[in-house]
Design brief:
This protein has 215 residues and is an all-alpha fold. The chain has one domain. The chain contains nine helices and no strands. The longest helix is centred in the middle third of the chain and has 34 residues.
Amino acid sequence: MSDINNPKDSSTEHLKNLSEIRSLMERSSSFISLSGLSGVSAGIMGLLAAYLLNSRLKPFLDRSIDYEMSGVTRVDLIMYGIWVSAAVLVMTFALAIYFTSRKAKKSGLPVWDGSAKRLVLSLFIPLVTGGLFCLILIYHYFDWLVLPSMLIFYGLALINAGKYTLSEIRWLGISEIILGLLAAVFLSEAIIFWAAGFGVMNIIYGLVMYIRHEK
């Protein structure tokens, strides 16, 4: 009876129900708890890694220091790069888990649900593939292509994972691929593009995500 007498109230209630259903569907299909601060922390870790890699590797890449004169072997430099990258990667994921868990708890959302599992799987398949590809490049002495390849595969991983989380992740992935291609063209400045991709772009997109979805 009230619906007949108050059509506006009935229409408003239906719209509210539809909005709630849509919200539930988005939560079930997308991982919306991803924190922008995880992107900022990843960028800071990326800049730190770029500094460490540049200070150690650039003299050898520029040929300003000879291997034999320095007593440093190619294997030493490769192992240094692997250890720095691995340490930064672990720290990055640890901080991402921390900030994302904190955001999920504040929002009353689950941290590890179906959408989170799909996100992680979609992210790690290209990342692991890229890591193995970089090892193959090193095995065949194509060391100079490792940094561009890391950017490109990171970008592909973000685009692949972007289907299950915030839209900014896809745009970040596109940016990483572009920087990776530029690094492949300008190989002598590859470390700069690497720092821009893993450092600066992560910070920028992380801040955008934080401002748009968390403040």
